[in-house]
């Protein structure tokens, strides 16, 4: 498909503005590594919240979300729990404050804050740095797979080429060009560039979402949707089995469901809950989300930033997702049925844009989706080099280098990470496969050690190291042992192996230094099993009050999950015109918002733990 000159002008103009902005802020960002990676802790929380929301609005994830709504209907609202999306609720309620109180730059540096400077702490420091790099490489491959499929449908040029024995097809060539441009502006501008461009990207993306929602709302009727989908598609609730048969509608969708491994939907839901509790309690993985929390001014702003991310992300995004899904079902359904087997459902989003979006708006939307991709990709390649430079080079190789040297090495680290991640992208099979591996297998190796580090005083540095190492090895080997099993069903086994590593480390190594543990608890004040440490602190300070807010936080998390779900369901019901269901969702949204206002937001307050600098 050839884009009009208007659409091409909008897209090219946006890319030029983005790159120029990165160059413009490069002088401020390159002052030192604190400015480069955290924006000097000067960026307001609402900008960081918009940036975080924009960073989560990635193009690969949006393509996946459109596909699963097309296939699974209203039940697709549950499938983002694979990540789980409600880890943002846990972060909002208590983890953002706990994490921000450390005043560190990276998740690996936080290890020293938690475990001290012993040999075991150094091993833990190294293993979490390795995890951060591996997860970033995985996400780069995930982005590479999505942006290539997306771009090829719209841009008219065949960019395929051969480089020695390597044959690069047009999808891969477009991905290389877009990723290269994103890398340039991120390298130069650091966190200032990432946040600044992502706020702009969020504005463009939100406008685009409302445009698509408007087009879909006015282009289809409820009866058209009902006639084009099988029984059960409209039902958000489910039994043990999915019970969704596309035979006679689009037969190849049944093959897609079988390949995904989601037929036993009740069992899948149980696995998502089980995995979600551990993954959410573990806290944000060492990537862009954690970097936003550490970039805030203090713990209160960290909590507000996480809450804002939930509010501003879901409704606009799901207007777009639902809009494209129903447009595809109604108008592309007969065509897809005629194609038979072999349909690539992951291209539904770009095909729908090609068919249904008018000139001018198409350029704006493509610029917005391109912005979303660039923002998410930029966030990852800003976060990962912080671990290489701050946690490896500065800590172990050259602790006395100049600020400019550290920034230069961050440039080099970014380039190496991007190149290695792209190599992995050449061998990726699909977005869905990468999504399941990242959310289930890899995070299965992360959850055990990182949940225990918050809640158990006796969990030591060796337990963390062996738990993380066992989890990473299991996440690599177990999926290879069971190639025909969806990664989400392997999560319990990977988690168990990781827990065994954790407890072996605890059993065969002594507890960490008491002074380190007291400092950690006194400043972070998590709830959990900390009684021996609390008693030691109270010997020195009889007036010290421990954290007794577990029940309140647990209640707020439950309410928050329901609250977040209403932001997902409201735009879906609006687009498919189920107004009674929509009104019920709005009522639940209001009730849960009032509850959270009283039990969470009103409780936020500055304290002596907030960094005053």
Automatic annotation (TrEMBL):
Compartments, as annotated in UniProt: Cell membrane
Keyword terms, alphabetized: Cell membrane, Ion transport, Membrane, Sodium, Sodium transport, Symport, Transmembrane, Transmembrane helix, Transport
Catalysed reactions listed for this entry: L-proline(in) + Na(+)(in) = L-proline(out) + Na(+)(out)
Keyword Signal annotated: no
Membrane topology, as annotated: Multi-pass membrane protein
A GO cellular component annotation in the UniProt record: plasma membrane
TM stretches of this protein: 6-25, 45-72, 78-99, 119-144, 164-187, 199-217, 262-285, 306-332, 364-388, 409-428, 434-452, 464-482, 488-509, 554-573, 579-596
InterPro entries: Na/Glc_symporter_sf, Na/solute_symporter, Sodium:Solute_Symporter
Residue runs in coiled coils: none
GO terms of molecular function: L-proline transmembrane transporter activity; proline:sodium symporter activity
Matching Pfam families: SSF
GO process annotations (BP): proline transport
Family according to the record: Belongs to the sodium:solute symporter (SSF) (TC 2.A.21) family.
Official protein name in the record: Sodium:solute symporter
């Amino acid at each position: 498909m050839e884009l009009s000159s208007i659409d091409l002008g909008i897209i090219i103009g946006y890319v030029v503005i983005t790159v120029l902005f990165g160059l413009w802020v490069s002088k401020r960002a390159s002052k030192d590594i604190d400015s480069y990676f955290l924006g000097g802790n000067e960026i307001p929380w609402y900008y960081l919240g918009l940036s975080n929301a924009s960073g989560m609005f990635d193009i690969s994830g949006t393509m996946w979300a459109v596909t699963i709504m097309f296939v699974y209907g209203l039940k697709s609202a549950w499938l983002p729990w694979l990540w789980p999306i409600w880890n943002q609720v846990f972060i909002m309620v208590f983890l953002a404050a706990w994490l921000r109180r450390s005043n560190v730059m990276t998740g690996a540096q936080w290890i020293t804050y938690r475990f001290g400077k012993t040999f075991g702490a150094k091993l833990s420091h190294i293993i979490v740095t390795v995890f951060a790099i591996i997860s970033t490489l995985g996400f780069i491959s995930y982005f590479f797979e999505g942006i290539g499929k997306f771009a090829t449908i719209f841009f008219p040029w065949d960019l395929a080429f051969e480089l020695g024995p390597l044959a690069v097809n047009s999808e891969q060539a477009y991905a290389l060009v877009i990723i290269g441009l994103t890398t340039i502006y991120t390298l130069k501008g650091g966190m200032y560039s990432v946040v600044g461009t992502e706020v702009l990207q969020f504005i463009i993306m939100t406008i685009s979402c409302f445009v698509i929602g408007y087009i879909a709302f006015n282009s289809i009727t409820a009866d058209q949707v009902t006639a084009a989908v099988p029984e059960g598609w409209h039902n958000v609730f489910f039994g043990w089995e999915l019970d969704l048969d596309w035979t006679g509608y689009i037969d190849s969708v049944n093959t897609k469901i079988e390949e995904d491994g989601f037929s036993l939907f009740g069992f899948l839901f149980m696995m998502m809950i089980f995995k979600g509790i551990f993954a959410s309690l573990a806290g944000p993985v060492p990537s862009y989300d954690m970097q936003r929390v550490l970039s805030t001014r203090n713990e209160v702003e960290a909590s507000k930033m996480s809450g804002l991310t939930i509010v501003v992300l879901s409704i606009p995004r799901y207007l777009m997702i639902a809009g494209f899904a129903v447009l595809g079902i109604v108008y592309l359904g007969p065509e897809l049925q005629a194609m038979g087997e072999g349909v690539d459902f992951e291209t539904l989003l770009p095909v729908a844009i090609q068919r249904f979006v008018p000139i001018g708006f198409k350029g704006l939307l493509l610029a917005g989706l391109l912005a979303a991709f660039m923002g998410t990709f930029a966030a990852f390649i800003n976060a990962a080099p912080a671990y290489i430079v701050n946690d490896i080079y500065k800590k172990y190789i050259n602790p006395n280098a100049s600020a400019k040297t550290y920034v230069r090495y961050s440039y080099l680290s970014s380039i190496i990470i991007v190149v290695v991640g792209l190599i992995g992208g050449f061998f990726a099979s699909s977005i869905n496969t990468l999504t399941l591996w990242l959310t289930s297998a890899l995070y299965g190796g992360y959850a055990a050690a990182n949940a225990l580090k918050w809640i158990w005083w006796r969990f030591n540095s060796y337990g963390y190291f062996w738990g993380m190492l066992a989890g990473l090895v299991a996440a690599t080997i177990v999926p290879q042992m069971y190639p025909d099993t969806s990664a989400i069903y392997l999560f319990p086994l990977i988690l168990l192996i990781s827990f065994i590593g954790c407890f072996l480390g605890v059993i065969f190594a002594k507890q960490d230094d008491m002074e380190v543990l007291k400092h950690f608890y006194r400043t972070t004040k998590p709830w959990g099993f900390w009684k021996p440490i609390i008693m030691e602190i109270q010997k020195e300070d009889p007036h010290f009050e421990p954290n007794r807010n577990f029940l309140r936080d647990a209640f707020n998390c439950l309410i928050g999950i329901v609250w977040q779900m209403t932001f997902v369901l409201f735009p879906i019901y609006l687009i498919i015109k189920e107004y009674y269901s929509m009104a019920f969702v709005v009522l639940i949204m209001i009730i849960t918002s009032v509850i959270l206002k009283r039990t969470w937001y009103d409780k936020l307050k500055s304290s002596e733990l907030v960094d005053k600098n």
